[in-house]
Amino acid sequence: MSDEKLVRSPLLSGIFYPSxxxxxxxxxxxxxxxxxxxxxxxxxxxAPHGSFLYSGKVSMESWGAILGADPSIIAIMGPSHLPYExxxxxxxxxxxxxxxTSLNIDSNLRDYLLxxxxxxxxxxxxxxxxxxxxxxLPFASRFFPGVPILPCIxxxxxxxxxxxxxxxxxxxxxxxxxxxxxxxxxNLAVSDSPEKCDSLSKEFVDSLSRPIAEFQxxxxxxxxxxCGEAVIRAFRVxxxxxxxxxxxxxxxxxxxxxxxxxxxxxGAIDFKR
Length: 273
Prior knowledge:
By secondary structure, the protein is α/β, with parallel strands linked by helices.
């Protein structure tokens, strides 16, 4: 089948966010009050991928940090929550659907990267049942309509995978310069109590401001439970001078009656050059 006919359909619409286009638009309208533009837009953000009920506000604050930017491409990097093989995966699809619209993949950039980073893989399977990128798409569509995306799944976190992801970040800059926004899709700590979740998440956020060697050591100890660990570590290696700022934080226990379920941390974090 030609790539031109491949479209990724939504996985969690109607579960994590509305499946009706009008209801999704209304939900985005309600959340948009939390998008606070900055005098100098960030070039990268960490945004969570929980349900809109749990993390929609924090996600909107993340995306607010890049309002005013004029990117030619939005590169959305997400982890795999399923046990696929180790590796870094670009999609075969040329469009990713969400209710009411489609977002186009930059196929030229994708194909360029596949020639430059030999360990990259072109495979839709890791994308089809993974939600980490999908939860960013309503925000990309709202704030940057018509801007193509580059979705990338980073599966696993061995040294080869992180090295490949680091090369990917570097080659995107080589191809398009500073006309790219990086969206790192990741929740923060997962723990059995709100207090421990908040503590581990704070440790990680603090580590983002450390020199890269110190970050590597501290991240190893505090972010093993983070779904997006490899995504963020590769980004920090590729951009060691990037300055991080925590814009907002929340955890899942505040949005339901806490019982024995695991607690997930959500952070809105931006990066400036």
